[in-house]
Every structure is written in structure tokens, then in C-alpha cells.
Structure prediction request, 98 residues.
Amino acid sequence: MRWTFEINFAITKSGLEGQLLGVMLHHEQPELEMQQSAMLKQEDYKVELAGLEKNLLEALSTAEGDLLQNFALIGTSTTPMWEQAVFLDQSVENVNPT
Prediction:
């Protein structure tokens, strides 16, 4: 059985090391690759959640007048951005329960 892998050599040394490590993990210990993939996904969720939190805090800090009467701001926090933040928070907990 022969294995052929396409490796992009037009990258940095550390990038090449990462690619080769990924190929080796995939071949030798696929369960470690799955754990690595889950951890990377969790980090992506955390970064996206931090961005949503930043957007919400900016909206709150620039709001004028009574926050409870600012229906545009309340609508922003209860629409897809808020739902996505809740989903991301739950996803982070599901990937790595503490």
C-alpha cells in the first residue's frame, strides 16, 4: 500500500512542521487528531464569542438615553447575535466540559 500526500513547500518552516505533524497524527494516532481538531474548534468558538461580546459592549457604551427605552439596542441583543453567542457558549462547554 502506498501513501501519497500533497505538501505545500511554499510556506514557513513552522507551517511545514505543522503539516507534517498533522499527516503523522492522522496516520499514527487518529484519536489525537480528533482531540486536536476539537480543541481548535473550541478556540474558534471562543474567538467568535469574544467578538460578539465586544460588539455588544460597544453597542451598550455608545447607547444614549435610557437603555430600557432603547428598543433598537434591545432588539440587537435579542436577535441572531445574542442567539449565536448563546450557541457558541454552549458549544465551548460541550467540547470541553469542566
The mean pLDDT is 76. DSSP finds four helices and no strands in the chain. The CA atoms of residues 23 and 29 lie 10 Å apart. The radius of gyration is 21 Å.
